Sequence to fold (427 residues):
Amino acid sequence: MALDDVLGEVRNRFAAANPGSRAAHDTASAVMPGGNTRTTLFYPPFPLTMAGAEGCRLTDLDGHTYVDLLGDYTAGLYGHSNHIIRKAVESALDGGWNLGAHGEREARLAAVLCARFPSLDLVRFTNSGTEANLLALATATTRTGRGTILVFEGGYHGAVLTFAGGGSPVNVPHRFVVGHYNDLDAAAALADEHAADLAAILVEPVLGAGGCVPATRAFLELLRRKATETGAVLVFDEVMTSRMSGGGMQELLGITPDLTTLGKYAGGGMSFGAFGGRRELMSMYDPRRPGAVPHAGTFNNNVFSMTAGYVGLTELFPPQVSEALFARGERLRTRLGELSTELRWTGVGSMMTVHFQREPIASARDMRPTPELNELFHLDMLHRGFHLARRGMIALSLEVGDAECDAFVEAVAGFLTDHGCHLASAV
Fold:
C-alpha cells in the first residue's frame, strides 16, 4: 500500500476514535482562529483536547489515556498535578495574590537560581522565555549602544524570535544576521564582519524547536571567544536546556555566557521567564542608580510562579535529580537509535527528536523535510497511547520511569514492523 493510502487510513482511524475532540475543535473555531491560541499545539485533521492529567498521563475528551512524553515542550518537567507543588501554591493562596508590592518569594527564588547557574550574578523575572530573550537582547543593545544580533538558523527564542525556515513575519525588528549552527568558520566570519555593531550573540546550547541538535563544545567556545573579542554580549538561551544539569548546559560544558535566559519548568509549571548574568550588565536595572533602565511587568513577581519555582527547584529538582533525568534520557535515546538506521534520534539528556533520515545531523541544513512520515509516526504513536510533538520531539518529565520508557521502545519497534516498508522507500 502506498504511503498516501496508509496515511488516509490512519487519519480516518484517528478521526473516528476522537469525536469529542473534533466537536471541541469545531466549537473553539467559532471564537478563535482555527480553534487555536498556541500554534505549536495544532495539527490536522484536528488536535486532541485533553480533559485531565495525572503523573505522566493525559486523558482526552473521549476517555483515551496517553503516556505524556512531550512534557509541554520541557515546561512540564514535574509531570501533572504534582502534590508538592500543589500544596505550595495552595499555601501561597492563603496569603493573597495580586499584591502589587514586593514579596519575600522572589528573592528566595532568585537566590536559588544565582547559586545554581554559573553566569548569574543577578537575575530579573519575566512571564515567559520569549519575554526573557527580548529583555536579554534589550540589555545587550542598551549596554553596548549597538544594534546587530547574531543568531543561528533553526534557533527558536520565542514567538517573535524564530529563525527556522527563513524566520517569521512577526519577528521583532532587530538587525539580525543568521549564521549556520555548528559552523565555526562561518560564525567567526559573521562575527568579524559585523564586529563594530555586534551587540549580542544569541544561541541555544541545544536547538530545541529546531530539532534537538546539540551545539559542539568547539562551536560554543568559539562564540564565547568572539563575543569577548568584539565586545558583544554572549547570551545562552537555556529556556529548555537548563534541565540538563543543576546549572544547565553552561555548567555541563564549563562555558559561561554573559547573560542567560530561563523559562519553562523553572517556574514550577506556572508562567515564567528570567534573564540574568554579569553584575555590571544587570546593574543597569537597579532603580537606586541614577539613569537606571526601567523594566516593568505586572506579573513578574506573581506569588504562584515564585512559590512553585522555588519548591520545584529545591524539593523536586535538586542537581542530583537533574543528573538522574539526564542519564535516563541518554539511555532511552541510545535504545531508540538501535532500533533502525532509518530513524535518527538527536538530542541531549531528556530532550530528543526523531528524524526520518540516515544522514547525520549537525544543523538545520542537515535535516530532510519528511512531513508525511512525521504525521504517520505521530498519529501511530497516539494510537499506541503515547503523546509527543507532531514534529517528533520528546521531553521527559520526572514522572516518566523505566516502565514507560520500555513501553515506548516497544511501541516504536511496533511502528517499524508495521511501516518499515514505507520508511525504506521514503528515507
Summary: The chain has a mean pLDDT of 97. The first helix runs from residue 3 to 17.
